Amino acid sequence: MALLFMDGFDTYNAMASFAGHGWTFPGSSNAISFPAGRFGGNAINLYSAWQQWSQIKTPLSTLPSTVIVGTAFYSSKGLPTAVDFARFTDGGSTQMSITWDTSTWQLRVNNGTTTWPTTYTYTAGSWVYIEWKIVFGTGVSGSTSVRVNGIQVLNQASINTAPSGSARTDGYMLFQLTGAEGSNFTIDDLYICDGTGATNNTFLGDIRVQYLVPTGAGVKTQFTPSTGSNWQTVDEVPASDTDYNSANSPGAMDLFQMANLAGNGLVYGVQTISRSKKDDAGFRKAAPVFYKASGLGETARFYKGSQAPVIDNFLNLPLQMFNTSPDTGVAWTVDEVNALQYGYAVGDAGMFTIDARLV
User: Fold this and answer.
1) Percentage with pLDDT > 70 across the chain
2) Higher-confidence residue: 322 or 298?
3) Which residues is 247 bridged to in the sheet?
4) CA-CA distance, 98 to 153, in Å (whole number)?
5) For residues 147 and 128, is the Cβ–Cβ distance under 8 A?
């Protein structure tokens, strides 16, 4: 599985848009805003008023026994008042959390009963990139390590990292609990890996998550736009449900030319994002599709992701992660991503599908 999830927080402007991306809200007093991110786009800022809290949680598609998470962190506060800023959970239990000492900004890890301080102390007003690995284990079979800006600041073995009694996690939570009004922190460029597979099975380093939008029509325009052109109904950031493309033919497909990646670094994975709904009774499914054009003696190819159910209201299809190129079977390259067209298909020709709308 390797890379499970990533989020650059560029597509959100309201709490409801988080729910569409798979995040949930365990807290009752969430206060979230969307300031500018590190390198353009948006980030997420969690803040609270007196004795209130903000929490968002993303459920993990598997129950990994090892996790590696990286995130850019920023706070303008002179001293922290947050208890935790991130947790891994198992059901209603917290397995492990990472936090700041409230008088020194020293970064610490704990399992609810024991705290392990790192050698890193934060300076307010600066972006840093924090990576955290946990091997879940009961008794003394677990371990944890932390890196800040690529430098190891904690490596603790032979500890209990599974207080729930199960060596696993079911979700990652960003958490803000305050004892003083105005406490806040900002998060950007998040990734989560599970340590398995041949790629993306260790710390990825300081990464950037970029959200690419359609910039023009691709080789397939088989859906009918509600207005304008197919690609213009799906290029909004954040997504708008007021315009859309619709189709009632099994196998119908739209493809789009996409914006290019910025920079020339490594590409660790591509994650698909599509919103859809159905407008009649019956079961509907849709799937993400990549298209590689012909060139250098190769024929054009289509690559379809997993089919997912479409429901009665607009909601993101389940995010699908491609750790490697479906064309080459090895790591993506920037040129390859920039040359791809991306889109979606209504089920397939062998599936009974009446109608679907995607935005």
Assistant:
1) 83
2) 322
3) 356
4) 13
5) no
DSSP class of residue 232 equals G
**41 C-beta neighbours (distance < 10 Å), count:** 19
Angle at Cα 222 formed by Cα 354 and Cα 300, nearest 5°? Answer: 120
Question: Start-end ranges of CATH 2.60.120.200 in the chain?
Answer: 3-193
Q: For the segment 27-58, what is each residue's pLDDT rounded down to a tens digit?
A: 555 567 888 899 988 898 877 554 444 556 66
Distances from the Cα of 12 to the Cαs of 127, 212, 288, 327, in angstroms?
21, 14, 21, 31
Beta bridge partners of 221: 254
Q: What is the mean pLDDT of residues 310-334?
A: 83
- Give, for 336, the enclosing helix (H) or strand (E): helix 334-339
- Assess contact for 253 and 344: CB atoms under 8 A: yes
Q: Does domain 3-193 have CATH number 3.10.450.50?
A: no
Pairwise CA distance, residues 21 & 356, whole Å: 19
Mean pLDDT (whole number) for 197-220: 92
Q: What CATH number should be reported for the domain whose range is 214-358?
A: 2.60.120
Is residue 324 over pLDDT 70?
Answer: yes
d(CA 56, CA 297): 48
Q: Which residues contact 132 (CB under 8 A, 6 or more apart)?
A: 68, 69, 70, 86, 98, 109, 144, 145, 146, 147
Q: Is the pTM of this model over 0.85?
A: yes
268-303 pLDDT tens trace: 999 988 888 888 888 888 888 888 887 655 677 888
Say if residue 359's pLDDT is above 70: no
DSSP 92-152: TEEEEEEEE-TTT-EEEEE-SS-EEEEEEE--TT--EEEEEEEE--STT-EEEEEEETTEE
How far apart (Å, rounded) are the C-alpha atoms in residues 172 and 89?
Answer: 7
Kindly give, in sequence order, each residue whose CB lies less than 8 Å from that of residue 295, ignoring residues fewer than 6 positions away.
none
How far apart CA 37 and CA 35 sit, in angstroms, is: 6
Q: Residue 184: how many CA atoms within 13 Å on its side-chain side?
A: 19
Q: What are the structure tokens assigned to 168, written together?
A: 């696993």
Measured distance CA(185)–CA(35) in Å, rounded: 11
